[in-house]
Amino acid sequence: MYFRMITSSLIRRRSRMIVALLAVAIGATILSGLVTIYYDIPRQMGQEFRSYGANLILVPSGDDTVLGYDVAERVKTFIAKDDAVGIAPYRYGTIKVNEQPLMAAGTDINEVKRTSPYWFITGQWPEADKEALIGQEVADLIRLSPGSRFTATGTDGGGNSFSRDFVVSGIVQTGGTEEAFIFMSLSDYGDMMGNSGGIDVVECSISASQTALDDIVSQISENIENVTPRLVKRVTESEGSVLSKLQALVYLVTVVVLLLTMICVATTMMAVVTERRKEIGLKKALGAANKSIVMEFLGEGLLLGAFGGLLGVALGFMFAQTVSMNVFSRPISFQSFLIPATLIISVAITGLACLIPVRNATDVDPAIVLRGE
Amino acid sequence: MFLRMVKGALFRQKGKMLMIAFTIALGASLATAMLNVMLDVGDKVNQELKTYGANITVMPKGASLLDDLYGIEEGSGVSDQYLRESELGNIKTIFWAFNIVDFTPYLNTKARLNSRNDEVELVGTWFSHYLNLPTGESLNTGMINMKSWWDVSGEWLTDQDENFVMVGSLVAGRNNIQVGDSITIDIGGQTKELTVKGIFDAGGDEDEQIYAPLRVAQEFTARPGLISRIEVSALTTPDNELSRRAAQNIKSLSIKEYEIWYCTAYVSSICYQIEEAVTDSVAKAVRQVAESEGAILEKTQLLMLLITILSLVGSALGISNLVTASVMERSREIGLLKAIGAHDGAISGLVLVEILVTAVVGGISGYFAGLGFAQIIGRSVFGAVIDIKPMVIPIVAVLVSLVTLAGSVPSIRLLLKLRPAEVLHGR
Question: Which residue in A129, A220, B131, B186 has its CB near the most CB atoms, within 10 A?
Fold first, then answer.
């Protein structure tokens, strides 16, 4: 009987109820959408901040002057797979081109693309063997352009002289010291210099919070011997401060928007219920107890809140997904706790918004209400 | 008569009208706050990103990074190139002077520490320098502002500390130097006794260097008024196709494109203007900082734009919803009006004017409340005042009036269709 009263009252007064349902759904959409975005911002923005390049470098410690060749692989075991954006090992050595001494760097080109996304390449990244990427300064010095050839000479680790031909695949501009290097793949570098040495430095770009990074640093220095991990403070500290500001911004915006939206929802619900003072008066005149009237309206409100909340969860996630795809081109992760949270909040607000006008109406003498005063 | 009716309706139903005005005020304040924050967020985040340090380095023409690599001694005086300290103020006179946040000169020399054989680099710089500009203004600039991530034990130097230095953590660790120790520095035979005022951990190459005030380093190396490098931190607009083309070759631009490029705060055009202002200099964008700033700035702005749109749509729907609800509620009154012979036009006019008067009251108070919200956000997040953009006023005004009309017109039309007898009968 109770349930029939509620549902039939909702269905009979269709147009008003759609208005109320819409109000609740909008509130719930904004709630679930913004909270989803708020939770995902650090992760998504953290990824963007990786465009600043490596935030952890590994250098040899103690008496060693080089790192082992397997160091990159061993470091990976301490970093969660999704967090490791790129891990690029570098070997450095001097070569001569046209009798000019220059620095050559052997590295894993695919990893460099990920650790240093800010490199501006004229031409292309090296793809085949015997292709090299040269810094702007080197290009100016020995007048090379993409596609041209040069011969690198020098002596390898064993003291034997070598001579190798390379094709310039591209020229790199960074505004920093990288412009004075010639970059090539590790295999080309080993072929030239021999493999007796080891890795000079490893650059890691890790998408993680400051504390997680500190954790990784202590784990690496405990578990891998002769390696000193160093955080690139300029990147890590600045990232921390900017990211926390951004999160505070979204947090405050979320709070303000939610607060205002919820009040909006409440006033709409109040308007819809206030309209029904007459009905309340009639019920009272027919002998309904205050309690049962309140229960009935509360039931309606809760039903509306639950429907609107469910609708809002779905719409809010769709909105958050659209934002994430547009801004970050990455899908957003769904926060499952938002389903109960959105439902509870929307039910609570609609319930509360119903109660106030119903209370006002039930407190008044039915005769006065029915007379319309 | 019409006026009296409107006034009567407004005052008789004070409570209800107040509620509508309140909701409209909430919606309008939400729109105002979000629009103001969104329009200003670019500038604010740009300021925050300055913590990443310089995005432009200025070097003498012909000087090259390559020198460092071969260890060609700068003291040998063969190919040394310098900029003039007296021209530093010119950086603040370029077209985009207001976008230059900070700049710091450096003078690097190789020195020997405590008469050992291995060399360290001694860097002279401004720490916090008060500078009178050629334009008559003055400004405080220097390294303390630009290296926010440095972790200093002891104290930062000031530019007046003639007998003090700051030592990088790696140099200090290798040579067992503590804060308060005195060290001997030897440059080309000249020695000087200096006290360590601070030891810093910069987490970068600087940890291998020793810093002293610029004037001390200039006197020490007999290079008065000369500097070897300037780092500039500037607020820039993210790069686009035009600026990339300009960076490659300025001559490829047409006159109009050149003007657009020159008058936009691209990092490449600021570099170009610095080169014009400082003789024989080459200004380069530090891509690591410049590029990433652009990316993060764009993402943040887009994010805020989308959140703003969501909240605008939300508040629009909320307002029009409430207006619909409150107009529909008045079916009985409208029925009565019709029964005593009111025309449709007169009724619609009456209801509309009532709602619009309420909307104006709500909208205006909402606008000012929204400014308050925007300032709260600005204060607590960025510690700075959010600029109030006048263009928000028409946007909010149009939004509020459209939304109230959209909320009331359909419901009024619905009510006009009702037959007075039925309505009055209560069906």
Answer: A220
pLDDT tens digits, one per residue of B215-261: 888 888 888 888 888 999 888 887 788 887 887 777 888 888 888 88
Residues B28 and B110 in one domain: no
Show the tokens assigned to A293: 């009237």
Residue B289 lies in a domain: no
B214 & B73 share domain: yes
B115 touches chain A (CB under 8 A): no
Could you report the per-residue pLDDT of A235-282, keeping only the tens digit for each?
A: 887 788 888 888 888 888 888 777 777 777 777 777 777 777 777 788
Sign of the CA dihedral running B89, B90, B91, B94? positive
pLDDT band at B367 (very low <50, low <70, confident <90, very high): very high
- Distance CA(A190)–CA(A104), nearest Å, equals 11
Check whether residue B65 and residue B203 sit in a common domain. Answer: yes
Q: Does B19 touch chain A (CB under 8 A)?
A: yes
pLDDT of residue A183: 92
Spatial distance between the Cα atoms of B282 and A140, rounded to a whole number of angstroms? 14
Query: Is residue B270 situated within a structural domain?
Result: no
What is the biggest distance separating any 2 CA atoms in chain A, rounded to whole angstroms?
111
Interface of B with A in 360-389 (CB under 8 A): 373, 376-377, 380-382
Give one DSSP letter per residue of A117-142, joined into a string: TT-EEEE----STTEEEEEHHHHHHH
- Please, are residues B394 and B53 in contact by the beta-carbon 8 Å criterion? no
| B310, B314, B328: residue with CB nearest A16 | B328
Alpha-carbon gap, residue A136 to A149, rounded angstroms? 16
Domain hosting residue B104, numbered range: 55-234
* Residue A170 · residue A133 · CB < 8 Å: yes
Do the Cβ atoms of B238 and B295 come closer than 8 Å?
A: yes
Q: In sequence order, what are the beta bridge partners of A60?
A: A227
Check if A344 contacts B (Cβ < 8 Å): no
Q: What was the pLDDT predicted at A1? A: 67
Q: Let me know whether A217 and A295 are in one domain.
A: no
- Residue B271 falls inside a structural domain: no
Q: b/e map of A278-295 (b: 16 or more CB within 10 Å)?
A: bbbbebbeeebeeeebbb
Is A210 in the same domain as A267?
Answer: no
Q: Are B59 and B39 members of one domain?
A: no
Q: Look at residue A66 and tell me if it is in a domain.
A: yes
Nearest to B300 by CA among A157, A227, A166, A328: A328
Pairing, β B151-154 against β B190-201: antiparallel
For chain B, the farthest-separated pair of C-alpha atoms sits apart, in whole angstroms, at: 111
Quickly tell me which residue has 């619609």 as its tokens. B348
State the residue range of the domain holding A245: 2-47+241-371
Q: What is the pTM of this model?
A: 0.77
Query: Same structural domain for residues A342 and A199?
Result: no
Residue B349 — pLDDT band, cuts 50, 70, 90? Answer: confident
For Cα atoms B40, B42, B44, give the angle at the middle one, nearest 5 degrees.
Answer: 70
Whether A236 maps to a domain, the answer reads no
Question: Which of A14, A247, A256 has the most B C-beta neighbours within 10 Å, making it the best mutation to test the interface with B?
Answer: A256
Tokens of A246: 């951004």
Shortest Cα distance, chain A CAs vs residue B259, angstroms: 25
Q: Is residue B181 pLDDT above 60, yes or no?
A: yes
pLDDT at B72: 45
- Do β-strands B119-125 and B209-213 pair in parallel, antiparallel, or remain unpaired? parallel
Q: How many domains does chain B divide into?
A: 2
Last residue of a domain, one of A231, A256, A287: A231
Domain boundary among A168, A196, A231: A231
pLDDT above 70 for B203:
yes
Mean pLDDT across B66-88: 60
